[in-house]
Design brief:
This protein is mainly beta. Helices cover 6% and strands 57% of the residues. The protein is built from one helix and seven strands. The protein has one helix at 64-70, and strands spanning 6-7, 10-22, 28-42, 49-59, 74-90, 97-108, 118-119. Strands 1, 2, 3, 4, 5, 6 and 7 form a seven-stranded mixed beta sheet that branches. Strand 1 and strand 2 form a beta hairpin. The longest helix has 7 residues, at 64-70. The protein is globular, with a radius of gyration of 16 Å.
Length: 127
């Protein structure tokens, strides 16, 4: 049952951690790491199912102490797939380089669907 990830029929995400970042102007800030609910995915190789969860980050104006205090808190919304400019990605297990054309983004409950938007892929420190 997915009770930890839903509340009153709302989809919920969990703040699982935070990370320090630097923006283009050289200013430091913290981004919150969000995780969606558990999803079952079937392996293309073995046919077996495995559990996974989508993750993403969102920028914040919080200091580190506030971010630390937010870890474990749930927020209404979900992590959705959004198209972006193609970018190369190396699969860690195989070393194979592929091209990715999407990213995972947080979408608050009640917000317009973001899937129609095209996002520019940013590296971890480009915000």
């Amino acid at each position: 049952q997915m009770a930890p990830f839903t509340k009153n029929n709302q989809t919920m995400v969990t703040i699982t951690n935070y990370t320090a970042r630097t923006n283009a102007q050289g200013e430091n800030f913290f981004a919150l790491i969000l995780q969606g609910g558990i999803t079952m995915v079937q392996s293309k190789e073995s046919g077996n199912y495995y559990a996974t969860a989508k993750t993403t980050t969102i920028t914040s104006t919080f200091d580190e102490a506030t971010c630390l205090g937010l870890v474990g808190q749930k927020m209404p919304g979900e992590i959705v797939k959004a198209e972006c400019e193609p970018y190369p990605y190396v699969i860690p297990e195989t070393g194979e380089q592929i091209t990715i054309t999407h990213r995972w983004v947080y979408q608050p409950d009640g917000a317009p669907q973001m899937e129609e938007a095209v996002f520019e892929h940013k590296t971890a420190n480009a915000f």
